[in-house]
Structure formats: C-alpha cells, structure tokens
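Practice set, problem 2.
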Amino acid sequence: MKITMKRTCYGSPDGVRVDEYKAGESYDIRESLAEIFLKEGWAVKADKAPRQTKNAGAAPENKTATFQTKPKSKKKTPRKRGTHGA
C-alpha cells in the first residue's frame, strides 16, 4: 500500500529490521504496517496526500545595484598615557 508520512517515525516492515519513515516522504509498504500508520494518524494514503512543493527560497539579489559607502570617520586623537598612582 502506498502511503505518505505526516510525521517521522519508525516501523518494522518485516518484523526483523526497523526502518525510519520520514515526514513528507511516500512509501510503498506492507498493508499491515500501513494500516498501523494510518490508524495512528501518522500517515495518509498516497492518493489522498496533499501535494508538496519545494521551497525555492528567496529571489537572487540584484547584482547591478549600487552600494553606498560609509563616510570616513574622523581620526581620534591619541590619549595621553598617564602613570598609575604617580
């Protein structure tokens, strides 16, 4: 049975090994394990799962933009070094 996981969890498809089933991923697994995931609300049938789109991220920065430079700061006058307690 094809399912899509709603959350990440572990399950044993054959009663021997344990696999991780990741949220948002679709799997074709044995009906007995799929029924547990569905009953617990951890997965939905793949044909009923909402389609996920990848986040493309932010648009690239405009490389032709001009940049303003910071104004030069005034030079600080050096401090006179004193002697402590003299």
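Problem 2, part (b): a different protein.
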Amino acid sequence: MRPTAFAATLALTLPLLATTSVSALAVSTQEFVNKVAVSDMFEVKTGKLAAEKAKNDDVQDFGEQMVDDHTETTEDLKELVKDEKIKVEMPAGMDERHKEQFNNLKDLSGAEFDRAYIPTQVLAHEQAVNLFEDYSKSGDNDALKEWASDTLPTLKGHLKEARELNEELSAPAKTAANDTDDKAMKQDDMADDKKTMDKVTDETDVDGADNKAMKQKADTKKDTAEMADAKKTTPPSFDYVKSQSPTDWTAQALIGKTVQNNNGETLGEVNNVILNEKGKVVALTVGVGGFLGLGEKDVGVPFEAVKFRDEDALDKDDDGEDTADMNDDADDAHEDMVIVIDATKDQLEAAPEFVWLGEKREKRADTKTETNTTVE
C-alpha cells in the first residue's frame, strides 16, 4: 500500500521537530562536522529525487539548487578540514533517521512528492540555520566558526525559498466564486471611501483657504525634516570597495578572452562567467568547436583550473627577464592576458555541454511532451 502524502510528510517531519531547538547547547567541532556532512548528503540525495520526481517546476529547480549548493558545501568543508588540519572524522554515510526520511520520499512522485518534500526542507533548513548560528557564535574552532558565518546567508536564502514554495503549494486554488466575492467587497469598500471623502469635503469647504495654507506649511516642515534626516544617514555595516587592484578582473574583461593550453594551442574564448550567491566565481564557460560561431558549444571550466598568463610571457631576454611592458592600469594590463587551462582541444570538444537553467526546463518540457505522445 502506497503511503499518502500526509502520512509521508508526518513521517519525515516529526523526527526533525523532535531534534530542532531554537536555542541549542553549544556543539563540539566533531558534532558540528557530523551534522553538516550528514545534512549535505541528505540534501544532495533528496535534491536529485526532486529533480526527477517533482511535478512543480519550481520544486524541481529548488532540488537541483540543493544538489549544487550542498555539493559545494561538502567540498568546502572537506578542504577546510584538510587545510586547517582539524582533527575530526567525516561520516561515511547518512544516519538511520535521514535514511528513513529519504526512503519515505523515494516512494512518492508528482504532486504528492512536492507536498512531502518541501515541508521537510523548511524544517531541515530551520535546523541548519540554528546549527550554523550557534557554532558561528560559540564553536571552538576559529576557522570553522568563520566558515559557518560565511555559509549562513546561503542557508537562510534556501530557507526563504522553501517557505515561499511551501506557501505556494499549501494555498487553496482560487475559484470563480472567490473572485466574484472579492470584487464585490472591493466595490463596497470603494463606495464607503467615497462617502467618507465627500463628508470630509463638505465639513472643510468653509475654511478651505485656511486648510490649504496649513497643509502647505506642514508639507514644507516635512520636506525640511526629510532633508535633515538624509544628511544624517548612517553608513552601512560593510566597507566599500574603493578601487580595482591589478589582480581583480571584471566580467566584461574576461568575456571574449582567448583560452589556450600550456602548449599555446588556442582552445576557444570565454563566453560567460558563473558566480554563486556567496560571490564566488564557480566557472567560466568556454565556447569550443564549430566554425564562425556555428556548431559551437559551451563547456564549463571550474575557476580553480584557470590560470592567467601574459601573451608576451614567453618572450624573455637573455637574462631570463620578462620583456612584457605592464603599465599600472589594471584594465590595460588585462588586455595582454590570456586564459590558460591544462587541457587539449580534443578533450574540450569531447566534454559535456554546459546546460543553463532555462534549458533544463525546456528539456524537461520536451521530455514530458515526448512521453505523452508515446502513450497516446
């Protein structure tokens, strides 16, 4: 017997409610790492389910975002533990509670899946936000505390999206009768407002001139007060970036740059720059293959694999000194720079094509159309 969406939701959310607290005790570094790693595994696995089983396009997109963002969180955490030599052990898999929640979701599909998946995401991200806030304030490892603080905005963004989706899925369908009632109520309100305004006008016409003068005087005082408040504006909580350094690139400067490999072979050009919500450059999309733009495809190259080289860097004098003339203007300096990656042209042409979010939806729609046509 298949579980109903309501029963599945209860099975998924009750364990989370039991373990979620608004004010938790300080957790140890090992406990924090365990909870984060297990949570990421759960988010990635259930996100993949959402991308495959959800009916609502927004739920599918949310699931795909969870896969991408929590995969990145896992990689960041592993790298931090390694670089800082933090003495903790990473869990090998999910705990029994998360396995059970995953199995309950796995048996659902379509609208039932949507109604069960999204409430668990609200509760899971409320718990995650509490965990990261607690550790960022009272954790016993400074590097992890800083990382927890930096990751919090992304988790809060996930929570906001999950709550909005939950409201959307929980909202009852609006009927024609509802529309008619709403319209009638608005018309009654407008009629009452008109009567009130007419009454006010009748009562104030005698002293209309005085009222006008008083209003003008009040408006003048208000404008003066607003101007004074504007001069007292307090600065924001962040510091402004006042200038560009020579190693800072603009997206405009990167796009169109030639991409070469270590042997000087031209591989293509940068077509776009991909950033995440934390401000990190994730990848460059490189246009490869084709001729005069025809048949070209985008390949996503991780930014960590990218190096920058002066076009004249190979031109050395007898003493081995670089003969390139780099002036102090960063933008002019970038004009002589090329992007270098460790790959061959054949490798890039054989790489998977980069898929944009809009294209994901189109492919899903095409797949659904083909499935329906086949059934018919």
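Answer key, part (b): The chain has two domains: 5-170, 251-369. Confidence is low (pLDDT under 50) at residues 1-24, 314-330.
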